[in-house]
Amino acid sequence: MIQQELGIKKIDVLKIDTEGAEVSIVEGLRNLLPNTKIVMAEYHTESDRKKIEEMLTEFLLYSAEVQELRGVGTVKYANLKFFNETG
Question: What range(s) does the Methyltransferase FkbM domain occupy (predicted)?
Answer without folding.
Answer: 4-57
